């Protein structure tokens, strides 16, 4: 039986918070918190379905949305193919109104105060806490602009880091228990072999590799992907990558400073 196609939106407000809604009474998993959305109807594009669901459920109009992640999840009642979109604060308008008796909550990514969460959304909630920009390099690790999120290779990793960075094929050291594992990949084969990670660092060496990354994002990814590339490659390809679902961008400055 084919999975049910479902769209869901991660809506941001001007404060950078994301919108979660509770499933109304009478639906499966009633009372569980989730991202708003619903089934794609016959003949609808994913974006059209997203717009319709948000107008029906919450009374707001979405003007644009960027694809993010895709997940396939098997519930007791159905298997669903979830298409997640991110919707910036300036990409929707209207007053959020619960039209189906659901509860609403604006939450800070990584600091959720509502529960229980819908099972299919657990990994997504963690992924949303990953910043969109970093500095650093694979040898010494990466850190977010505010220093609040840090990724380190095994030789430098300690409990204060948020994530461990491993090569695509490297086993996780038995003595290390990170909160998250990132894997570094440089091509499609490594990408496919690194799906056990929580997030991926894609090293982009040239324009050909940039096109491979773009095509992969356009096909849909289930893990947040950060691109690591030189400034000139970023300038040429970052807009298309972001429109296709890239989570984060890291400029490779190793040729300038170490």
From TrEMBL:
Residues of the Nudix hydrolase domain: 2-131
Catalytic activity: 8-oxo-dGTP + H2O = 8-oxo-dGMP + diphosphate + H(+); 8-oxo-GTP + H2O = 8-oxo-GMP + diphosphate + H(+)
Sample GO molecular function, one term: 8-oxo-7,8-dihydroguanosine triphosphate pyrophosphatase activity
EC number: 3.6.1.55
Record's protein name: 8-oxo-dGTP diphosphatase
Keyword DNA damage: yes
Pfam name, any one: NUDIX_4
Required co-factors: Mg(2+)
GO biological process, one term: DNA repair
Family that this chain belongs to: Belongs to the Nudix hydrolase family.
Cited InterPro entries: MutT-like, MutY_C, Nudix_hydrolase, NUDIX_hydrolase-like_dom_sf, NUDIX_hydrolase_CS, NUDIX_hydrolase_dom
UniProt keyword annotations, A-Z: DNA damage, DNA repair, DNA replication, Hydrolase, Magnesium, Metal-binding, Mutator protein
Tree of life domain: Bacteria
């Amino acid at each position: 039986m084919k999975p049910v196609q479902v769209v869901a939106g991660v809506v941001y407000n001007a404060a950078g918070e994301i919108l979660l809604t509770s499933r109304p009474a009478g639906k499966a998993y009633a009372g569980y918190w989730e991202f708003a959305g619903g089934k794609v109807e016959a003949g609808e594009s994913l974006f059209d379905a997203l717009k319709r669901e948000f107008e029906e459920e919450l009374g707001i109009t979405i003007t644009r949305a960027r694809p993010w992640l895709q997940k396939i999840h098997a519930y007791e009642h159905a298997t669903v193919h979830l298409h997640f979109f991110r919707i910036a604060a300036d990409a929707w308008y209207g007053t959020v109104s619960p039209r189906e008796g659901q509860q609403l909550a604006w939450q800070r990514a990584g600091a959720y105060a509502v529960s229980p969460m819908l099972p299919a959304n657990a990994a997504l909630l963690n992924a949303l806490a990953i910043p969109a920009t970093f500095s650093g390099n694979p040898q010494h690790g990466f850190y977010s602009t505010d220093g609040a999120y840090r990724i380190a290779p095994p030789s430098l990793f300690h409990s204060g880091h948020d994530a461990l960075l491993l090569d695509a094929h490297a086993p996780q050291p038995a003595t290390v228990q990170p909160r998250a594992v990132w894997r570094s990949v440089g091509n499609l084969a490594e990408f496919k072999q690194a799906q056990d990670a929580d997030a991926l660092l894609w090293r982009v060496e040239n324009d050909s590799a940039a096109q491979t990354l773009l095509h992969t994002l356009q096909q849909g990814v289930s893990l947040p992907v950060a691109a690591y590339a030189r400034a000139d490659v970023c300038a040429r390809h970052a807009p298309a990558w972001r429109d296709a679902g890239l989570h984060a961008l890291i400029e490779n400055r190793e040729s300038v400073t170490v």
